[in-house]
Amino acid sequence: MLDLPVWVWIATMGGIAAVIAFDFYLVARKPHEPSFRESLYWVLFYVGLAVLFGLGITFLAGPSYGGEFFAGWITEYSLSVDNLFVFVLIMARFAVPREYRQKVLIVGIVLALLLRAVFIALGAQAIARFDWLFYLFGAFLIYTAWKLLRQEETEEAEFSENAALRAVKKVVPATTTYHGAALTTRVDGRRVVTPMLIVMVAVGTTDLLFAVDSIPAIFGLTKEPYLVLTANAFALMGLRQLFFLVGGLLDRLVHLSKGLAVVLAFIGLKLIFEALHHHGVSWAPEIPIVVSLGVIVVTLAITTVWSLHTSRRAAQSAVEGAESAQRSEDAPVKDTQP
């Protein structure tokens, strides 16, 4: 059990807040749609920060805790990539100007991080008092994995407004047009909110709904609230740049949901086995964190390669089909009259 002094929590939260504040400053200073190169550099920066933090945990607290952080961070980061599909739909649904999408994402991510912190605190307290929740979390993750596997590859993703978003739109007077990046404006002397605020609420609350899956998943890898919170923070901090980096590649990750299903099912079984072992069931194995980390990394790597291979073959088939159709159109028509 990590016994951390208060100043470590304060320093960690201060560091995360400083990074997010600097990121927000960059977005507010020059609203624009980042290039592929810019997004790549920032994603590498945030990944590097997470790796350095994980190595620090390994050096100071031991390889077991370091492995728990890396397993949790990789899982949360992978689930965040899946969330980007819905973020793309939200941006299209609300017709967000491309130069202001960065601001929407950064504010939505901050909102999601604050709400997740509350979820994590409640989850940690609940698990400490009611260890039978492991069975519930494990069963829920297995059910979620089953739902992901049942999804058809041709099924179109859809965005549906959640209750929080509907309440905001119903209670708060809003205009239908954007006014730059402003969240509010005046119409006929009355203060109203713009669609910019509505879409920020949509991104933040939608990400919170995804946390219903991800929070039990990471508690299946580590019971340390400090590691759960920091893994979530590092997974969310680079999500804005990841949106622009892989936005054009999302359609090629056709088997991502299958890989995530395998990961969630594995973590669900791990939770149930740990609960059984804790309650004296001798045959229930304890799965080491090294095995968990290996299963997660290998599964996601296979899923990515499989997805890219499938997408490439589909693109080649489409090109060959178009060329065949063009040759048929260009072929001379034979005169069958005598």
From TrEMBL:
Does Flavoprotein appear among the keywords? Answer: no
Spans traversing the lipid bilayer: 6-28, 40-61, 73-92, 104-126, 132-149, 196-219, 225-247, 259-277, 289-308
Per UniProt, the ranges with Basic and acidic residues bias are: 326-338
By its UniProt entry, which Pfam families does this protein fall under?
Answer: TerC
Record key words, sorted: Membrane, Transmembrane, Transmembrane helix
The record, for InterPro entries, names: Integral_membrane_TerC, Integral_membrane_TerC_rswitch
Q: Which domain of life is it from?
A: Bacteria
The region called Disordered is annotated at 319-338
Q: Where in the cell is it found?
A: Membrane
> What's the protein's topology in the membrane?
Multi-pass membrane protein
Q: What is its main location?
A: membrane
Query: Could you tell me which NCBIfam families the record lists for this protein?
Result: R_switched_Alx
Describe the family membership recorded for this protein in Swiss-Prot or TrEMBL.
Answer: Belongs to the TerC family.
The entry's protein name is TerC family protein
Source organism per entry reads Lentzea roselyniae
